[in-house]
Amino acid sequence: MTRHLIKALINALPRFAEEEGDFYAVSRDTLIAGLSEIQGISAEVAGNTVNLCEALLDSLATLKPQDLQRGEWCFVSFPAQLMALSALTALIDPGSRYFETDFWNTRDVDPSKTERQREVLQIIENRRNDRHLKQKAEPVRYIHVAWSMIKHEGKVLFFHREDKTRHEKKSGNYGLIGGRVNQKDLSHFDGNMQDKLRLLQSADRASIKPALAETLKRELLEEVGLEYEQHYVFRPWRALRPYRQVQGAKSNHALTEYFLEIYAIDLTLEGFCLLQQKIAKSTAEFAWFSLDEIAQGKTSDGKTAYIEALYDDFEDRDYLKFALEDLEDSFKTNYINCHDPAKFRIVLPRDERQQILAGTPGKESAIDFQLNESTLSLLLGLAAHLREFSFVEKDTSIALHPYGWLEVEDDCELQTELVELAESFKDSKDIVIENQKDRWFRLSILPDCVFFDDSYFSCSVDQKDMQSRKSKVRVTAMRREFGTRLGTVGKDKKEPKVPINVVKSLDNLNKGNRNDSLTDSVRDSYRKSQLHDSLAKLGMRGLLRQDAGAVKIYCEFVMN
């Protein structure tokens, strides 16, 4: 019956000449009356048919808008008439198809076919959205999303998007870790499969919100391998206002309304270490964006952020940056001994016959602990890792993590030794060994407070440089390679440029040419030079120190 009505309507349509530009209009009332009379149907049924076809042809922009406002149908042009006839004829012809029968099939299809589906939807939906008369096109796809905010040392972690090589430039190729709610996340919902699908594909944000926590847990497990509670907990950070965009992975592409909730992540030690390992193994999958790069939308090496909804919600990207600055880091270092380095430091000896020194810089004293070779070797390894010194080789039973943490395998000899080490220092306020679950260990002191015996270090200057007319010469500050229970710590060097007069004064002091004016001059000049900072980075507490009223050089200082 419907096909007969549309066929009759086609015969009554207005016409536009293929040449010369002649045309005529037909009123809507005439179309309804004619259809009612010819088909013997009520005016209501005829009116519904005409109105439905009018909506179709108007959406195709084939009818003149000004004529429609007067209640008349008039084609814009002959090609517009052809477009209208094509659409209406396809409706009445059972054999008509704009696409092959299996065009929209998505199961086990070639990627090229998926791309064709995407291209069609992208063109149609972009046209529908961009050409809406009121710029308020209705979405046909609704997505509810949980995003995670993992912040560390002023940077936020992003994950390569689902469409890894196929994305719009504006949209970006890296997004926050997270994803959309699916049927499995609706564990709180009592309805059947049909009810769940209707809810998922709706704008009912309130009903779906309880599922977002499950979505977040699932996505963090799938994308990063993090288990809720064991590796992290989370808290709400921001609920974004609905965001519309023609977007979607693969061929799931349409004008979409996104409902996004962002959660701040707090990592456990185990979660933090696992995340670092995951990132190290999959560098192409992850990217750290600084807060400035987030505001700019891209990193210095060209990675782009897909967070348009976040930009839209804040409106001003500087406000977004300020909000992220206020957000606490997802993992806190929390050293137990966190004295100010200007007021406290420890110095580890080179052999067990010496003692550990601790206290105010320049006034350190021996702590009450009897070292043995094994204990010192463990401490030196932990301290070297805390200071981020490189190991040229390490024990195979450990993994090294940031902030001085090391992870040891279960039931190995080193694990037993580390447990005993932590126990032996449990009452010490100076040397603090953290033990987490007999698996993670560290020397829990601010790294800038930890130094090593002077005998590990040396300084040298090339005599040729001293004979030049340069105002500054290169001083090679060296830390020797040394062994520890964790492995061998590699040698390292810094080569700061130091004023030549300072170097000459140091050389005179080293040769025993001491007087008060020389001592005062060289001490003040040395501390202002890059040499002092370079030695501190290598782990030496200072080239010059005062002992029994005399200022001395405390490491090998040679002119080559």
Verbal overview:
By secondary structure, this protein is of the alpha+beta class. It has 4 domains: 2-92, Orthogonal Bundle (Arc Repressor Mutant, subunit A), CATH 1.10.10; 141-326, Nucleoside Triphosphate Pyrophosphohydrolase (Alpha-Beta Complex), CATH 3.90.79.10; 345-450, no CATH class; 454-559, no CATH class. Helices cover 36% and strands 22% of the residues. Strands 3, 7, 8, 9 and 10 form a 5-stranded mixed β-sheet that branches. Strands 21, 22, 25, 26 and 29 form a 5-stranded mixed β-sheet that branches. Strand 4 (151-152) and strand 5 form a beta hairpin. It is elongated, with a radius of gyration of 37 Å. Residues 141-312 form the Nudix hydrolase domain. InterPro entries: NUDIX_hydrolase-like_dom_sf, NUDIX_hydrolase_dom. This is Nudix hydrolase domain-containing protein. GO terms for molecular function: catalytic activity.
